[in-house]
Every structure is written in C-alpha cells, then in structure tokens.
Write a structure and sequence with these properties.
This protein is 34% helix and 28% strand. The protein is of the alpha+beta class. It has a domain of 209 residues: FAD/NAD(P)-binding domain (3-Layer(bba) Sandwich), CATH 3.50.50.60. Bound molecules: flavin-adenine dinucleotide.
Length: 340
C-alpha cells in the first residue's frame, strides 16, 4: 500500500513521481521496460519545459537552442525566443537525469506491466504478473497507447487524419542553433541539434511516409553521406482523444491524457504542467479540480497545434511559411505562447 502509484516511467511519469515526493507523498512508479529508455521524439525541450524541470531539480545536458525556424522553398521565418533558451536533449539522457532525481528522493520503482486495475472509494489496486499493488491514488502516465486510459473507460474514438512520427540521429556538426521545421509537400521535417556532433531529424506525416526520401528531399545538402548515430524509431498515431482525465481515484497525465500532434514540439512542457496540477489536486483531495486545471494547462497546445495541423492538411499548406515570414509578430506571438 502506498499513497500514489504512477503507471509509466517515461519523462512525465518520473516527473509526476518527483513532484509527488516533493509534496511529501509516498510514491511508486511501475514501468514495463528495463534500463534506460529511448523513444521517437523531436527532443526539443522548450524554455518552459526546462524551467519546470529545473524546479524539480533536474537539469539534463544537451545543446542550447535559440528559437524556431520555419522553412519552405526558399522562404524562412525565424523567431528567437524572447525569454530563455530551449535545449535539445537525447531521450536517454533525459531519462537518466529524471531517474537519478527520483531515486535521490526515494521514489520506489516497480518493473512490470499494468494490465488490470480496480478501484473503490478508498483505493486503487493494480494487478501485475505476480503481485497486487494498492494505493490511494493512481496517475496514468503510460503514453500514447495508454492501458490505464482504456481500463478506466476514458478513451474517445479516434477522429481526423492519422499522423505518425519517425526519427533518427545523424553524426554531424549542428549547422544551426534553431530548431528547423522544413515544410515539404506532404510532411514536416523537424531538425533538433542535440549534441556537438549529433543532430536529430524527425519526420511527421501520414502512414507510409518514407523517412529517407523525405529527409533527403528537404536536407540533401546538409546530411548527404552523414553516418547515422541511432536507429530509426517511430510513434503514432499521434492524435489520441480522451473524454475526461479523471475517473474516481485515477488521473491521466502526459500523452495518456490525450495528444494532438508533435508539430509544435511541446508534449513534455504540457505534460510537466499536467503532473504539477495532478499532484496539487491529489494533495488537496480534490481530483475533480484536475479536470479544470488540465484544460487550462493544455488550452494553447490543443487550440494552436490543432489549428496548425488542420492548416497543414488544407490547400493553404503551401502558404504557411510565406505567411509566417510576412507576419513576424503573429508568428513570434504563437511561438512564444507555445514556448512558455
Ligand atoms: C516524432 C515525435 C517528435 C516529438 N517531438 C517533441 C519535442 O521536440 N518536444 C517535446 O516536448 N515533445 C515532443 N514529442 C512528444 C513527446 O515525445 C511526448 O509528449 C512525451 O514522450 C510524453 O511522455 P509520457 O511520459 O507521457 O509518455 P512516454 O514517453 O510514451 O512514456 C510512457 C511510458 O509508459 C510505459 N508504459 C506504457 N504502457 C505501460 C503499462 N501498461 N505498464 C507499465 N508501463 C507502461 C512505457 O514503456 C513508457 O516508458 C514528440 C513526439 C513524437 C512522436
């Protein structure tokens, strides 16, 4: 029996556990995978995400990023962040930094896959392969394909076009200190410097998008012949919908609580804001307040990212970068809202 169980030991699950320990709760994290975890991700930690991690006592090493640059057919729109810098951080590096902080604070770690869950007025019970674990509360942080979300009946049917993300790293000197988003005809190529000799390139697009062809169309002059420094990894469908974020003593956070798209690179910033809110509501014994706080924390992400994805799927797609270029104040204001 513990006060809080966290299902999923990705960045948001570990952050939830750290947040809970800092609030004085006993907490255990259940993670199905062993060792250091990597994942398909653009790996750009926005200035707001870095500030939130620093508040938790976590400062992962990486490569500083000064802003966001949109590119298409000779057009470009650059916006340097007004407050602070972002950072390109490899996911295993982020995992180790969060794990160390969690261990330092005495977070209990359980290796196992959450497959069964029941709850009553007092507690939540999770059944792993050979044991049952009970807690007063559970936060489901088990990612895009959340089992917890399904088990408590909070999933909503998928809607809209399905998009996927693919990523790989190249052993090459970063050529920019901006995250570059190259808008090709039907996919976005998202370049994040993550080290002195390491650049991550993610491709976002429809099922079946050819990674190598898309990357070489957008960046042939930059990466031709550069050796790979990681395997190709994918994730998706990106859009995941939920009908609510709280069911009794179970709260959802991170990608498990619903996800729009990776296009604006702020899943981690939003997830960190969600777990801060979830722990606040648990400590206050008021899980229903989380619903309101979740909506506030995700409003910009839901509105702006959905809007941009819809525009990208419309005939106006080819006008996005020229428009951002000709309206620098509007483009800058949108980047600032998402970077907070
Ligand atoms: C291509 C791409 C690019 C992206 N780029 C960016 C970016 O630049 N910046 C940014 O901030 N965000 C980005 N994102 C989003 C970001 O990757 C996610 O928002 C983030 O990983 C969410 O973290 P999480 O902990 O909620 O989920 P995850 O990272 O998916 O972690 C979930 C964890 O739960 C575990 N788990 C799952 N099921 C169970 C179970 N039943 N029992 C126990 N454990 C379980 C998994 O093993 C995993 O470790 C990108 C996403 C994609 C796909």
């Amino acid at each position: 029996m513990t006060q809080l169980l966290v299902a999923g030991g990705g960045p948001i699950g570990l952050a939830a556990a750290i947040e809970a320990r800092l609030a004085g709760l006993d907490v255990a994290v259940i993670e199905q995978r062993h060792g250091t975890i990597d994942k398909a991700c653009g790996e750009g930690l926005m200035p707001g995400a870095l500030r939130a991690l620093n508040r938790l006592g976590v400062d992962p090493v990486g490569r500083d990023i000064r802003g966001i640059s949109y590119r298409r057919d000779g057009h470009r729109a650059d916006h340097p962040f007004a407050h602070g810098t972002a950072r390109g951080v490899r996911r295993p590096v982020l995992h180790v930094a969060l794990s160390r902080r969690a261990d330092e604070l005495g977070v209990e770690r359980i290796e196992g896959k959450v497959g069964l869950l029941s709850q009553d007025d007092e507690s939540v019970t999770v059944v792993l392969r050979d044991e049952a674990v009970r807690a007063n509360w559970l936060i489901g942080c088990d990612g895009l394909h959340s089992t917890v979300r399904d088990l408590v009946g909070l999933a909503s049917p998928p809607r809209g076009r399905r998009r996927f993300g693919l990523r790989r790293h190249f052993a090459i000197e970063p050529w920019s200190d901006f995250v570059e988003v190259h808008w090709t005809k039907d996919a976005e190529v998202y370049v994040t410097p993550v080290g002195d000799h390491n650049v991550g390139i993610a491709v976002l697009g429809a099922p079946g998008t050819d990674y190598d062809r898309t990357v070489s169309t957008a960046l042939a002059d930059r990466i031709d012949g550069a050796p790979h420094s990681s395997d190709l990894r994918g994730a998706g469908p990106l859009r995941q919908r939920t009908r609510a974020r709280t069911a009794g003593r179970v709260l959802l956070a991170g990608d498990a609580s619903g996800y729009v798209d990776a296009l604006t690179g702020e899943g981690i910033r939003v997830g960190l804001a969600q777990v801060a809110a979830a722990v606040r509501c648990i400590v206050a014994g008021d899980p229903q307040a989380y619903e309101r706080e979740w909506r506030t924390a995700t409003r910009d992400f839901r509105m702006l990212t959905s809007g941009l994805v819809a525009l990208g799927a419309s005939p106006a797609r080819r006008a996005i970068v020229p428009l951002a270029d000709s309206l620098p104040r509007t483009y800058g204001a949108i980047v600032e809202r998402l970077a907070r």
